[in-house]
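Async update (no meeting this week)

Hi team, since we skipped the sync, here's where things stand on the single-chain job. The sequence we agreed to prioritize is pasted below, unchanged from the tracker. I ran it this morning and attached the output directly underneath so nobody has to dig for it. Comments welcome in thread, and please keep replies under the output.
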Amino acid sequence: MFPFLQRCCFHTSFKVQKLTGTRLLLYGRNKTTWCSLSFRLQTDVCLFSRSPSLSPASVYATKLQAFHTSPPSFKKKTPKESETKKPGVLERSVESLKESPKPALYLSLAGLIPFVSVPLAMAIQGTYYPEVAFAQVLYGAVTVSFLGGMRWGFALPENSPAKPDWLSLANSTVPPLLAWQALLFKDVTHSAVMLVLALGIALHYDVALLPPYPRWFKVLRVVGTVVMALSLLATAALKAVSEEQLSDSRDKWQNTKQ
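Output:
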């Protein structure tokens, strides 16, 4: 009897212990699973709460940052009109003349006085003087010869960019030949036109064919050539006007004589 009771009791307790152990194991597994699930949910929630795209505070901060960090183009100050406006050709020419050496500037301007004074004096007096007009043509021929000879002075130095070849030295003789041809004409108008042509050729040599010349010298040459050409043409125009007036007076005198 005792062995039977002992076996039933021990077997029952073993079953209960086994069942209890199984439940505890299952409970532990479930608890571990729930813990892991809760940990994952907490991590996702934290990440979700830390997302700047859905957080109101982060969205507001982002908007403020976008408001204060405007594009660089809006931050730059608009330059003034005086800074954006580039100087024109006339302004740059005046600046170049200011940079020229004083002796070159003053001597060049003084050399224009004989050209300007002749047509100005005849226009003020209202009379054409053939001798004075021929003196202007003679002075123009000397000036053209001087401008042509400058090529020799530019090409002969050893460090000069222009070589003393046939082209450079022969081109310098073209303006003096045209000036000599201008003196052969008996008409002042033809002489003046020939001198204007010679001045244009000399200017083309100095401005277009000789780029190493400084800018102030080129501007000075352009100004001088324009003034000389206009003065010669003004003298020719005064001669034409005086001849027309003389012919009109002759016609009137003949009409009154008849």
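Quick observations from my side:
Residues 1-6, 8-35, 43-75 have pLDDT under 50 and may be disordered.
Residues 2-50 form the longest helix (49 residues).
Reply here if anything looks off.
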